[in-house]
Protein backbone atom coordinates (compact mmCIF):
# COMPACT_ATOMS: atom_id res chain seq x y z
CA UNK A 1 0.00 0.00 0.00
CA UNK A 2 2.66 2.45 1.03
CA UNK A 3 4.92 1.63 -1.85
CA UNK A 4 2.00 2.04 -4.21
CA UNK A 5 1.24 5.45 -2.77
CA UNK A 6 4.91 6.32 -3.03
CA UNK A 7 5.11 5.37 -6.67
CA UNK A 8 1.93 7.27 -7.41
CA UNK A 9 3.50 10.25 -5.64
CA UNK A 10 6.64 9.98 -7.73
CA UNK A 11 4.62 9.69 -10.91
CA UNK A 12 2.66 12.80 -9.97
CA UNK A 13 5.86 14.69 -9.19
CA UNK A 14 7.37 13.50 -12.42
CA UNK A 15 4.37 14.75 -14.33
CA UNK A 16 4.27 18.11 -12.58
CA UNK A 17 7.88 19.15 -12.18
CA UNK A 18 9.00 19.55 -15.79
CA UNK A 19 5.80 21.37 -16.63
CA UNK A 20 6.07 23.70 -13.65
CA UNK A 21 9.68 24.44 -14.58
CA UNK A 22 8.72 25.12 -18.20
CA UNK A 23 5.93 27.48 -17.22
CA UNK A 24 7.34 30.93 -17.60
CA UNK A 25 5.14 33.61 -16.14
CA UNK A 26 4.62 36.75 -18.17
CA UNK A 27 4.52 40.14 -16.48
CA UNK A 28 0.92 40.68 -15.35
CA UNK A 29 1.42 44.39 -14.74
CA UNK A 30 2.73 44.88 -18.26
CA UNK A 31 -0.07 42.94 -19.93
CA UNK A 32 -2.65 44.77 -17.82
CA UNK A 33 -1.16 48.15 -18.73
CA UNK A 34 -1.18 47.27 -22.42
CA UNK A 35 -4.87 46.42 -22.05
CA UNK A 36 -5.29 49.86 -20.43
CA UNK A 37 -3.68 51.45 -23.51
CA UNK A 38 -6.00 49.45 -25.75
CA UNK A 39 -9.01 50.81 -23.84
CA UNK A 40 -7.54 54.34 -24.08
CA UNK A 41 -7.29 53.88 -27.85
CA UNK A 42 -11.05 53.39 -27.93
CA UNK A 43 -11.58 56.37 -25.65
CA UNK A 44 -9.35 58.63 -27.76
CA UNK A 45 -10.47 57.30 -31.12
CA UNK A 46 -6.85 56.86 -32.14
CA UNK A 47 -4.09 54.27 -31.83
CA UNK A 48 -1.00 56.40 -31.11
CA UNK A 49 -0.62 55.25 -27.51
CA UNK A 50 -0.17 51.58 -28.42
CA UNK A 51 3.52 50.77 -28.01
CA UNK A 52 5.71 47.71 -28.49
CA UNK A 53 3.82 46.32 -31.46
CA UNK A 54 5.43 43.22 -33.01
CA UNK A 55 6.59 43.18 -36.64
CA UNK A 56 4.12 40.43 -37.40
CA UNK A 57 1.21 42.23 -35.70
CA UNK A 58 -2.21 41.06 -36.84
CA UNK A 59 -5.61 42.59 -36.20
CA UNK A 60 -8.64 40.33 -36.37
CA UNK A 61 -12.19 41.60 -36.08
CA UNK A 62 -15.07 39.13 -36.01
CA UNK A 63 -12.84 36.35 -37.32
CA UNK A 64 -11.53 38.36 -40.27
CA UNK A 65 -8.04 39.78 -40.65
CA UNK A 66 -8.37 43.53 -41.20
CA UNK A 67 -6.45 46.77 -41.01
CA UNK A 68 -6.70 48.05 -37.43
CA UNK A 69 -7.34 51.53 -38.83
CA UNK A 70 -10.36 50.35 -40.78
CA UNK A 71 -13.22 51.19 -38.46
CA UNK A 72 -14.03 50.90 -34.78
CA UNK A 73 -10.95 52.87 -33.61
CA UNK A 74 -12.02 55.99 -35.52
CA UNK A 75 -14.81 56.61 -33.04
CA UNK A 76 -13.91 58.06 -29.63
CA UNK A 77 -16.03 55.95 -27.33
CA UNK A 78 -17.28 56.48 -23.80
CA UNK A 79 -16.54 53.22 -22.00
CA UNK A 80 -19.50 52.51 -19.72
CA UNK A 81 -18.21 49.18 -18.41
CA UNK A 82 -14.84 47.52 -18.55
CA UNK A 83 -13.53 44.22 -17.25
CA UNK A 84 -10.07 42.78 -17.91
CA UNK A 85 -8.42 39.46 -17.05
CA UNK A 86 -4.78 38.53 -17.61
CA UNK A 87 -3.33 35.15 -18.55
CA UNK A 88 0.28 35.10 -17.31
CA UNK A 89 1.01 31.72 -18.90
CA UNK A 90 -0.32 32.50 -22.38
CA UNK A 91 0.89 36.16 -22.15
CA UNK A 92 -2.54 37.43 -23.05
CA UNK A 93 -5.43 39.51 -21.82
CA UNK A 94 -9.15 39.56 -22.38
CA UNK A 95 -11.17 42.75 -22.04
CA UNK A 96 -14.92 43.14 -22.12
CA UNK A 97 -16.27 46.59 -22.98
CA UNK A 98 -19.83 47.87 -22.97
CA UNK A 99 -20.52 51.13 -24.76
CA UNK A 100 -23.72 53.03 -25.39
CA UNK A 101 -22.45 56.44 -26.54
CA UNK A 102 -19.33 58.07 -27.89
CA UNK A 103 -17.57 60.95 -26.17
CA UNK A 104 -19.69 63.44 -28.13
CA UNK A 105 -22.79 61.93 -26.57
CA UNK A 106 -23.95 60.39 -29.85
CA UNK A 107 -25.31 56.84 -29.76
CA UNK A 108 -22.54 54.29 -30.26
CA UNK A 109 -23.90 50.94 -29.14
CA UNK A 110 -21.17 48.31 -28.89
CA UNK A 111 -20.28 45.31 -26.78
CA UNK A 112 -16.69 44.30 -27.48
CA UNK A 113 -14.57 41.35 -26.44
CA UNK A 114 -10.83 41.71 -27.05
CA UNK A 115 -8.19 39.01 -26.70
CA UNK A 116 -4.71 40.53 -26.91
CA UNK A 117 -1.60 38.34 -27.25
CA UNK A 118 2.05 39.12 -26.48
CA UNK A 119 5.33 37.38 -27.28
CA UNK A 120 6.77 35.82 -24.10
CA UNK A 121 10.21 37.37 -24.76
CA UNK A 122 9.86 41.11 -25.34
CA UNK A 123 6.12 41.15 -24.55
CA UNK A 124 5.47 42.82 -27.89
CA UNK A 125 1.85 42.61 -28.95
CA UNK A 126 1.41 40.40 -32.00
CA UNK A 127 -2.35 39.87 -32.05
CA UNK A 128 -5.46 41.84 -31.26
CA UNK A 129 -8.45 39.60 -31.77
CA UNK A 130 -11.75 41.43 -31.35
CA UNK A 131 -15.37 40.37 -31.32
CA UNK A 132 -17.31 43.57 -31.97
CA UNK A 133 -21.06 43.38 -31.64
CA UNK A 134 -23.50 46.17 -32.38
CA UNK A 135 -27.11 46.75 -33.35
CA UNK A 136 -28.28 43.66 -35.24
CA UNK A 137 -26.02 41.21 -33.43
CA UNK A 138 -27.45 38.36 -31.35
CA UNK A 139 -29.95 39.74 -28.78
CA UNK A 140 -28.12 43.06 -28.91
CA UNK A 141 -28.95 46.01 -26.69
CA UNK A 142 -25.89 47.46 -25.00
CA UNK A 143 -27.98 49.58 -22.61
CA UNK A 144 -29.57 46.44 -21.20
CA UNK A 145 -26.29 44.50 -21.21
CA UNK A 146 -24.80 47.36 -19.19
CA UNK A 147 -27.65 47.27 -16.66
CA UNK A 148 -27.19 43.56 -16.00
CA UNK A 149 -23.39 43.50 -16.08
CA UNK A 150 -23.17 46.42 -13.65
CA UNK A 151 -25.02 44.45 -10.98
CA UNK A 152 -22.61 41.53 -11.02
CA UNK A 153 -19.60 41.10 -8.74
CA UNK A 154 -16.50 39.78 -10.53
CA UNK A 155 -14.09 40.57 -7.72
CA UNK A 156 -10.76 38.78 -7.17
CA UNK A 157 -11.16 35.24 -5.83
CA UNK A 158 -9.50 34.60 -2.47
CA UNK A 159 -6.14 32.92 -2.99
CA UNK A 160 -7.00 29.55 -1.45
CA UNK A 161 -10.26 29.33 -3.41
CA UNK A 162 -8.91 29.92 -6.92
CA UNK A 163 -9.70 27.28 -9.52
CA UNK A 164 -6.79 25.78 -11.47
CA UNK A 165 -6.28 26.55 -15.14
CA UNK A 166 -7.30 22.98 -15.93
CA UNK A 167 -10.54 23.32 -13.96
CA UNK A 168 -11.37 26.52 -15.84
CA UNK A 169 -10.52 25.09 -19.24
CA UNK A 170 -12.42 21.86 -18.60
CA UNK A 171 -15.48 23.80 -17.46
CA UNK A 172 -15.47 26.07 -20.52
CA UNK A 173 -14.81 23.21 -22.92
CA UNK A 174 -17.55 21.04 -21.42
CA UNK A 175 -20.00 23.93 -21.75
CA UNK A 176 -19.05 24.68 -25.35
CA UNK A 177 -19.13 20.96 -26.20
CA UNK A 178 -22.83 20.66 -25.30
CA UNK A 179 -23.93 21.36 -28.87
CA UNK A 180 -21.96 18.44 -30.26
CA UNK A 181 -21.45 16.01 -27.36
CA UNK A 182 -24.23 14.30 -25.43
CA UNK A 183 -22.15 13.66 -22.30
CA UNK A 184 -20.72 17.18 -22.03
CA UNK A 185 -23.63 18.63 -20.03
CA UNK A 186 -22.91 16.26 -17.15
CA UNK A 187 -19.28 17.45 -17.10
CA UNK A 188 -20.20 21.14 -16.66
CA UNK A 189 -19.70 22.29 -13.03
CA UNK A 190 -23.14 23.92 -12.83
CA UNK A 191 -23.52 26.34 -9.94
CA UNK A 192 -26.50 27.86 -8.19
CA UNK A 193 -27.05 30.70 -8.41
CA UNK A 194 -25.70 31.03 -11.94
CA UNK A 195 -26.57 33.79 -14.39
CA UNK A 196 -25.93 33.95 -18.12
CA UNK A 197 -25.90 37.31 -19.85
CA UNK A 198 -26.50 36.31 -23.44
CA UNK A 199 -26.22 39.45 -25.53
CA UNK A 200 -28.68 41.60 -23.57
CA UNK A 201 -30.82 38.80 -22.19
CA UNK A 202 -30.39 37.59 -18.62
CA UNK A 203 -31.26 34.04 -17.66
CA UNK A 204 -31.64 34.96 -13.99
CA UNK A 205 -33.66 37.23 -11.79
CA UNK A 206 -31.07 37.80 -9.10
CA UNK A 207 -32.47 34.91 -7.05
CA UNK A 208 -30.50 32.21 -5.21
CA UNK A 209 -32.14 29.66 -7.49
CA UNK A 210 -30.94 31.27 -10.77
CA UNK A 211 -29.64 28.63 -13.17
CA UNK A 212 -27.47 28.76 -16.27
CA UNK A 213 -29.16 25.62 -17.57
CA UNK A 214 -31.94 27.79 -19.00
CA UNK A 215 -32.02 27.26 -22.75
CA UNK A 216 -29.00 25.01 -23.06
CA UNK A 217 -28.91 22.76 -26.15
CA UNK A 218 -31.01 19.64 -26.08
CA UNK A 219 -29.78 18.58 -29.50
CA UNK A 220 -26.22 17.36 -29.04
CA UNK A 221 -25.69 16.41 -32.68
CA UNK A 222 -25.02 19.90 -33.97
CA UNK A 223 -21.87 21.14 -35.64
CA UNK A 224 -19.27 22.03 -32.99
CA UNK A 225 -18.05 25.29 -31.50
CA UNK A 226 -14.59 25.29 -33.04
CA UNK A 227 -11.45 27.42 -33.54
CA UNK A 228 -11.32 28.02 -29.75
CA UNK A 229 -8.88 30.61 -28.34
CA UNK A 230 -8.45 30.87 -24.57
CA UNK A 231 -7.43 33.48 -22.02
CA UNK A 232 -7.35 32.06 -18.49
CA UNK A 233 -7.04 33.99 -15.21
CA UNK A 234 -7.49 31.95 -12.02
CA UNK A 235 -7.17 35.09 -9.87
CA UNK A 236 -10.59 36.13 -11.17
CA UNK A 237 -11.84 32.56 -11.54
CA UNK A 238 -12.39 33.45 -15.18
CA UNK A 239 -11.78 32.09 -18.65
CA UNK A 240 -12.50 33.76 -21.98
CA UNK A 241 -13.04 31.59 -25.04
CA UNK A 242 -13.44 32.92 -28.56
CA UNK A 243 -14.76 30.40 -31.06
CA UNK A 244 -16.82 29.82 -34.17
CA UNK A 245 -20.40 28.59 -33.75
CA UNK A 246 -20.40 26.24 -36.72
CA UNK A 247 -24.05 25.33 -36.04
CA UNK A 248 -24.99 28.99 -36.39
CA UNK A 249 -23.55 29.61 -39.84
CA UNK A 250 -20.02 29.96 -38.40
CA UNK A 251 -20.91 32.90 -36.18
CA UNK A 252 -17.92 34.44 -34.36
CA UNK A 253 -18.57 34.04 -30.64
CA UNK A 254 -17.17 35.07 -27.26
CA UNK A 255 -17.99 33.26 -24.01
CA UNK A 256 -16.55 34.30 -20.68
CA UNK A 257 -17.09 32.08 -17.67
CA UNK A 258 -16.62 32.92 -13.99
CA UNK A 259 -16.35 30.14 -11.44
CA UNK A 260 -16.86 30.59 -7.71
CA UNK A 261 -16.11 27.72 -5.34
CA UNK A 262 -15.40 25.57 -8.38
CA UNK A 263 -18.88 26.12 -9.83
CA UNK A 264 -20.19 28.27 -12.67
CA UNK A 265 -21.42 31.62 -11.34
CA UNK A 266 -21.58 33.90 -14.40
CA UNK A 267 -21.46 33.52 -18.18
CA UNK A 268 -21.29 36.41 -20.66
CA UNK A 269 -21.76 35.83 -24.36
CA UNK A 270 -21.27 37.95 -27.48
CA UNK A 271 -22.35 36.35 -30.74
CA UNK A 272 -22.09 37.86 -34.22
CA UNK A 273 -25.27 36.41 -35.59
CA UNK A 274 -28.57 37.81 -36.57
CA UNK A 275 -31.28 37.40 -33.95
CA UNK A 276 -33.64 36.34 -36.75
CA UNK A 277 -37.24 37.12 -35.89
CA UNK A 278 -36.47 37.15 -32.20
CA UNK A 279 -35.82 40.80 -31.52
CA UNK A 280 -34.34 42.38 -28.45
CA UNK A 281 -37.77 43.56 -27.33
CA UNK A 282 -38.67 40.02 -26.34
CA UNK A 283 -38.00 39.30 -22.71
CA UNK A 284 -36.86 36.73 -20.18
CA UNK A 285 -37.41 33.19 -21.52
CA UNK A 286 -35.85 34.09 -24.82
CA UNK A 287 -32.65 32.05 -24.42
CA UNK A 288 -34.80 28.93 -24.51
CA UNK A 289 -36.00 30.03 -27.90
CA UNK A 290 -32.46 30.67 -28.97
CA UNK A 291 -31.15 27.21 -28.54
CA UNK A 292 -34.31 25.55 -29.78
CA UNK A 293 -33.97 27.61 -32.89
CA UNK A 294 -30.44 26.41 -33.31
CA UNK A 295 -31.68 22.87 -33.33
CA UNK A 296 -34.34 23.88 -35.79
CA UNK A 297 -31.69 25.45 -37.93
CA UNK A 298 -30.02 22.13 -38.24
CA UNK A 299 -32.92 19.78 -38.24
CA UNK A 300 -35.62 21.58 -40.08
CA UNK A 301 -33.77 23.87 -42.44
CA UNK A 302 -33.01 27.49 -41.98
CA UNK A 303 -36.33 29.11 -42.77
CA UNK A 304 -36.12 32.72 -41.68
CA UNK A 305 -32.51 32.33 -40.60
CA UNK A 306 -30.78 32.22 -43.94
CA UNK A 307 -29.46 35.73 -43.52
CA UNK A 308 -27.41 34.91 -40.47
CA UNK A 309 -23.73 35.60 -40.94
C1 LIG B 1 6.53 44.43 -15.24
O1 LIG B 1 6.01 45.50 -16.00
C2 LIG B 1 5.92 46.71 -15.30
C3 LIG B 1 5.15 47.70 -16.19
O2 LIG B 1 5.72 47.78 -17.45
C4 LIG B 1 7.32 47.18 -14.95
O3 LIG B 1 7.26 48.39 -14.24
C5 LIG B 1 7.99 46.11 -14.10
O4 LIG B 1 9.33 46.46 -13.87
C6 LIG B 1 7.94 44.76 -14.81
N1 LIG B 1 8.42 43.74 -13.89
C7 LIG B 1 9.41 42.92 -14.21
C8 LIG B 1 9.75 41.88 -13.19
O5 LIG B 1 10.00 42.97 -15.28
C1 LIG C 1 -12.03 32.12 -39.08
O1 LIG C 1 -12.54 30.90 -38.59
C2 LIG C 1 -12.05 29.73 -39.25
C3 LIG C 1 -12.66 28.54 -38.58
O2 LIG C 1 -13.99 28.46 -38.88
C4 LIG C 1 -10.55 29.66 -39.21
O3 LIG C 1 -10.09 28.55 -39.91
C5 LIG C 1 -9.97 30.93 -39.76
O4 LIG C 1 -8.58 30.89 -39.64
C6 LIG C 1 -10.52 32.12 -39.03
N1 LIG C 1 -9.97 33.34 -39.55
C7 LIG C 1 -9.17 34.08 -38.82
C8 LIG C 1 -8.66 35.32 -39.44
O5 LIG C 1 -8.87 33.78 -37.68
C1 LIG D 1 -19.64 60.46 -32.34
O1 LIG D 1 -20.57 59.84 -33.23
C2 LIG D 1 -21.03 60.71 -34.25
C3 LIG D 1 -22.11 59.99 -35.03
O2 LIG D 1 -21.61 58.75 -35.49
C4 LIG D 1 -19.86 61.14 -35.12
O3 LIG D 1 -20.30 62.03 -36.12
C5 LIG D 1 -18.82 61.82 -34.25
O4 LIG D 1 -17.66 62.12 -35.03
C6 LIG D 1 -18.42 60.92 -33.10
N1 LIG D 1 -17.55 61.64 -32.20
C7 LIG D 1 -16.27 61.25 -31.99
C8 LIG D 1 -15.50 62.14 -31.06
O5 LIG D 1 -15.77 60.26 -32.47
C1 LIG E 1 3.97 36.42 -34.42
O1 LIG E 1 5.03 36.08 -33.58
C2 LIG E 1 4.68 35.39 -32.39
C3 LIG E 1 5.92 35.12 -31.59
O2 LIG E 1 6.70 36.24 -31.51
C4 LIG E 1 4.01 34.09 -32.73
O3 LIG E 1 3.60 33.42 -31.54
C5 LIG E 1 2.80 34.36 -33.59
O4 LIG E 1 2.20 33.15 -33.99
C6 LIG E 1 3.20 35.16 -34.82
N1 LIG E 1 1.99 35.51 -35.54
C7 LIG E 1 1.86 35.32 -36.83
C8 LIG E 1 0.55 35.73 -37.43
O5 LIG E 1 2.75 34.85 -37.52
C1 LIG F 1 -32.66 48.71 -25.06
O1 LIG F 1 -32.99 48.52 -23.70
C2 LIG F 1 -33.35 49.73 -23.05
C3 LIG F 1 -33.42 49.44 -21.56
O2 LIG F 1 -34.21 48.32 -21.30
C4 LIG F 1 -34.63 50.25 -23.65
O3 LIG F 1 -35.03 51.44 -23.01
C5 LIG F 1 -34.40 50.50 -25.14
O4 LIG F 1 -35.60 50.86 -25.76
C6 LIG F 1 -33.83 49.28 -25.84
N1 LIG F 1 -33.37 49.66 -27.16
C7 LIG F 1 -33.86 49.12 -28.25
C8 LIG F 1 -33.26 49.58 -29.53
O5 LIG F 1 -34.70 48.23 -28.21
C1 LIG G 1 -18.02 41.25 -4.06
O1 LIG G 1 -17.65 40.00 -3.50
C2 LIG G 1 -16.60 40.11 -2.54
C3 LIG G 1 -16.16 38.72 -2.13
O2 LIG G 1 -17.08 37.77 -2.43
C4 LIG G 1 -17.08 40.94 -1.38
O3 LIG G 1 -16.01 41.07 -0.44
C5 LIG G 1 -17.50 42.31 -1.89
O4 LIG G 1 -18.03 43.05 -0.82
C6 LIG G 1 -18.52 42.19 -2.97
N1 LIG G 1 -18.78 43.50 -3.54
C7 LIG G 1 -20.00 43.95 -3.79
C8 LIG G 1 -20.11 45.29 -4.40
O5 LIG G 1 -21.00 43.28 -3.53
C1 LIG H 1 -17.59 14.51 -24.68
O1 LIG H 1 -17.61 15.13 -23.41
C2 LIG H 1 -17.02 14.36 -22.38
C3 LIG H 1 -17.22 15.12 -21.09
O2 LIG H 1 -16.65 16.39 -21.17
C4 LIG H 1 -15.56 14.11 -22.69
O3 LIG H 1 -15.00 13.29 -21.69
C5 LIG H 1 -15.45 13.42 -24.04
O4 LIG H 1 -14.09 13.29 -24.38
C6 LIG H 1 -16.17 14.22 -25.11
N1 LIG H 1 -16.16 13.49 -26.36
C7 LIG H 1 -15.68 14.01 -27.48
C8 LIG H 1 -15.78 13.16 -28.69
O5 LIG H 1 -15.18 15.14 -27.53
From TrEMBL:
Signal peptide as annotated in the record: 1-22
Name recorded for this polypeptide: DUF8021 domain-containing protein
InterPro entries with a match to the protein in the record: DUF8021
Signal in keyword set: yes
Residue ranges occupied by any DUF8021 domain in the UniProt entry: 161-271
Key words of the record: Signal
Amino acid sequence: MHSRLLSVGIAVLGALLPRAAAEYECNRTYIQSFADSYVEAHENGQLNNLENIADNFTYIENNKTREITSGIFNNALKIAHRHTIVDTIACASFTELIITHNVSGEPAPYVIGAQIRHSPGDLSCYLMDLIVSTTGSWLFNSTKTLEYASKENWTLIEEDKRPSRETLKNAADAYLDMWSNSTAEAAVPWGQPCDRLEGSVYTGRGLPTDSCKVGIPTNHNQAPNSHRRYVIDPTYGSISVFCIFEHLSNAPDSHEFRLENGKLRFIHTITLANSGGFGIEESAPQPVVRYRKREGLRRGGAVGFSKRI
